[in-house]
Amino acid sequence: MNDIAQIMLYIQIATVVGCLLAGSFFDLVKREVSDIPWIVMGGIGIISTIIFIIFVEEKNHYGMLIGINIGVGILVSVLLYYTGIMGGADAKALMALSLNTAIYPFNLELTSLQVYAYIPSIFNIFFNWLLAMVIFYPLPLLFYNLYLKTTGLKLFENTTANFSSKILMLISGYLTPVEKAKNRNNVVYSEVYDEKKEKWEIKHFIQVQEVEEEEKFKKEIEEKIEKTKRKNIWVKVLPPGIVFLLIGYIVNLFMGNVLFAIYHFTL
Known about the structure:
Blueprint: H1 3-29, H2 36-55, H3 59-82, H4 88-97, H5 121-136, H6 138-150, H7 163-170, E1 173-177, H8 178-182, E2 187-189, E3 191-194, E4 199-202, H9 211-228, E5 232-237, H10 241-255, H11 258-265
Antiparallel strand pairs: 1-5, 2-5, 3-4
């Protein structure tokens, strides 16, 4: 690969890391991310990719890899967004990311595996993103809830839930005083009040909600909290998806898909 093509890949790396860092900051602090980082990432990705293809040797080979990467990235982003599994900012970031570093920039042992001639980079980033979510999201919540249990707190004393719902709640949220929940913008109430039964019930959201919907729901629940004098309530932590996407991207640069890396080392 000639110098100009290699420089284009380095430009893409710097752009992606910078935009994901900016997106991560706003995702953590404000819970809302503007489209600016994704427009910048996508724009620079398109320009640098065109220059890369012009100057790189084996244009057909690299062009095919880039095309597959973009196609898979757009397809996965749209599918996950419209099924509600991924929020709007996460989907836009993944889509813009597919326009960058479809080719592994470093000649490392792991990222030079033959499997990467068939599996697009964006898929490996997405897999690493999911893995990071599993490691850094449910497990700490489970341990925290088990700790609360050891302190003598009756976790489900004032709410109705079946066994499977309780298990899901233990790995996706935690019980907290309502006063603390009111002052946090990165949690969503996970209980609803049934007026007919006069009971609180666990509520699991299947789809990612928009911020406006979350605020409306939160206001309604807080009215019920005041009415019933509720002291503690289950909430779900909203995972910072952009942060995990940044982790998945960096891991992919140096290791590729974590699953393939583990398989490679265990052969």
